[in-house]
Amino acid sequence: MQQAAALLLLSGDMDATTQHCADQPPHGRRGQRYVWLEAGHASQNISLQAAEVGLGAALVAGFDDDRLCGLTPAVVPSGQHPLGLLGIGQPADRQG
Q1: Terminus of the chain with fewer CB atoms < 10 Å: N or C?
Q2: Are the CB atoms for 43 and 78 separated by under 8 Å?
Q3: Which domains does the chain have, with CATH numbers?
Q4: 38-68, pLDDT tens digit by residue?
Q5: pTM of the model
């Protein structure tokens, strides 16, 4: 990740989605499932497009949420929850 040319933050508004789907079982948590599904779809599509142009992509979910949210609001806007970091750059087997 330290050598990635780009680092994308995938985030979602869990509260708004939970409220929007509050009438759906189980107990209003359906919205959170949708957020995670969409984040997975987005990361897969980005990874596929990166591969199409000869780049590599790696998804990381093991990060410190509180520390990441403590960065400038331009990185994690208010109300957004970090879901994953997607590094994009030269594949490891092509790095010199």
Answers
A1: C
A2: no
A3: 6-94 (3.40.109.10)
A4: 999 999 999 999 999 999 999 999 998 888 8
A5: 0.83
